[in-house]
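User: What would this chain look like folded?
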Amino acid sequence: MVKINSVIPGSPCDRAGIRPDDLLSKINGNSVKDVLDYMYYAAETDVVLDLVRHGEEFSVTIKKDEYDDLGLEFETFLMDSKQRCSNNCVFCFIDQMPPGMRETLYFKDDDARLSFLQGNYVTLTNLDQADIDRIIKMKLNINVSVHTTNPELRVKMMHNRFAGEKLKFIRQLTDSGIKLNCQVVCCPGLNDGDELRRTLSDLGEMMPNISSMAVVPVGVTKYRKGLYPLKTFTRETAAETIDIIAEYQELFLEKYGTRTVFPSDEFFLIAERDIPPAEFYEDYSQYENGVGMLRSLMDEFSQALETAEWEGGQRTVSIATGYSPYPIICQLAELAQEHFPQLKCNVWRIRNDFFGETITVTGLITAQDLIAQLRYKDLGDQLLISSAMLRSGSDVFLDDMTVPEVEKALNVSIRSSANDGYELLDAIMGVSF
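Assistant: Here's the prediction, encoded as structure tokens.
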């Protein structure tokens, strides 16, 4: 049973007399333990709710349009606690975090419900057959962290003795028509090379229900004392990985009409290769995994320039970026300056001293690194940063400093911009929100 926290005024449940603190036990005779049960069984037009109030059982029948919300709210979004990851992966970024950061940054979730609802990736290691049966019954398409299809290697990489045997769930899901997006965190000397070929071959046999695959390079911080001795990708090994993926893209394209597997943008930056054109990424199915983000940004920025008109006088701005995308951001800044003679756009490459110089992405830049490296720079009228540096929906950096605090330290106005070419150009030009 799940305790009802509140009832939305005017909702079907409000009209039926259901109250806060009532306990919901069943919907249409099916037990309810979490949000998936609630959403799935409550989608019908005729819904019978079994409830308990002050120890007394009673039932309520509700008629509504299909998929209309019943109007019940619970203490947590999931209706219970998040499922904590049971692995100890050799590449886990959370294990490489410095001490003393906010507690939420150290929580490892591995929750299949969040995979369906929010797009999180799960390893399947904390699921049992009943969980898989429920996913199949509810026809829930999910995202899976595969990393390798070699059972022994998966056990080694995840430090979980069940990690290898749980690979069988991937086949069960795809055989049942469940669509999976998959990811591989690629670690040199572990699951790259021939092991990567094996993984792509094995997953390819489950197409077309393997909807997409992303291969991303492992991130290694300076906080790895006592952890597995991981290597980072070099220009040569990144190029080799891109070429292996290209082999399978050709095979899949010929057989299924889609490339299916994609390297993340970071591989091209490390290998010092050009970012592929938009058609390479097809429908950008792995965009949130950093696949095609830079191409999308570049194309949108160029399109935005075609119709942009300058208003006002001279303007000087600065952009702070990580080492990896620095060349791309420089190209965009140059395009803007060529288009608008009134504009001067400086791009500052920020070294990641907080996590270590091997971390080169923009989203992991902290406030203290910005302050230390830009304090004595001429930043012009405004400093532009990526919204990826900030906690979602807030102005707080990873090190818990806020945008106003950085503005005060650098004596400059700061504006954040999403990974969107139109929004970036607006920010560079100073166009109001």
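The chain is about 30% helix and 20% strand. If you want, I can go into more detail on any region.
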